[in-house]
Each structure stands twice: as structure tokens, then as C-alpha cells.
Amino acid sequence: MENCIFCKIAAGDVPSYKVYEDEVVYAFLDLSQVTKGHTLIIPKKHVTDIFEYDEKLASAVFARIPKIARALEAAFPDMEGLNILNNNKELAYQSVFHSHIHLIPRYEKTDDFSVHFGDHEGLHNPDEMQAIADAIAKQVN
Q1: pLDDT band, very low/low/confident/very high, at 117 (cuts 50, 70, 90)
Q2: What is residue 94's DSSP assignment?
Q3: Chain centroid to CA 107: how far?
Q4: Does 116 participate in catalysis according to the annotation?
Q5: How far lies 91's CA from each of 87, 94, 95, 98, 129, in Å?
Q6: Cα separation of 95 and 127, whole Å?
Q7: Which one of 46, 98, 100, 102 is the catalytic residue?
Q8: Which end of the chain has the smaller Cβ count within 10 Å, N or C?
Q9: Residues 105/35, Cβ–Cβ less than 8 Å
Q10: What domains appear along the chain, each with residue ranges and CATH number?
Q11: At what angle do helices 55-63 and 65-75 cross, to 10 degrees?
Q12: Per residue in 22-72, pLDDT tens?
């Protein structure tokens, strides 16, 4: 895509701190560095979000995540965990509309990154839960 910053980064037209590259993905440091080593993995093929992936692309992109995660763990022995984050569409905080997966190393509870969903258990009764599950299951192809 012509004006996509991530397409330009993958093509080498915009500088980045490359972590990994192959024929399918390009991985580079996020300039925001939420924590040390915060890495983005993008498919080289432009897809806006997860909804545009086909099975082959999804398999190829997501198969590379463990390799890069292990590299982060080896590079930073003080890393105690890792968040994998993927935002899709503006309401879900996607800010660059080229699909990307964040790998965010965690070093301690106070490392300035939190994913806290709260306690929503019991929000729906068992019948509602089953109806939600059924509605989703019916749509899986």
C-alpha cells in the first residue's frame, strides 16, 4: 500500500531497528519501547488487520512468533514474561492500519505496562454463556 508506514519499513524505504526478516514477515523494535525489547512483527503483505488474513498467511505469520519470542528471552535474561498483543480496528486501539503483533517483554510488575481485564466472572448466567459460545461456533468455518 502506497502510504503505509509499515509497508515502507518492510521495503527498506523507512529506517527501522530490524530484529528479524524472512520472505513472510519483518520484525523490528517499536519506537515507543513500552519495555526494553518491545518488538513488532508485521506481515510483508499488506493486510489491514486480522480480519483480512487468509489461513495461509495467518499460519505463516503466527508460526514465527515463538522464534522471535525465544530470541527476546535469550537476549534479555532478566525478562520474566512476555505479552503478545494484537489490536484490530480503531476501537480496539489499532493506530497503524497494517496488521502487527506486539511482543512486549515483562521484567517486573511495575515495568509500566499492564493488561488488566478485571473480574467479570458471573456477568452472564450459564444459558447466556452457552448462547454466546453457540453464536460464535456457528460462524467458525
Answers
A1: low
A2: -
A3: 19
A4: no
A5: 9, 7, 10, 15, 24
A6: 36
A7: 100
A8: C
A9: yes
A10: 5-114 (3.30.428.10)
A11: 20
A12: 999 999 999 888 889 999 999 999 999 999 999 999 999 999 999 999 999
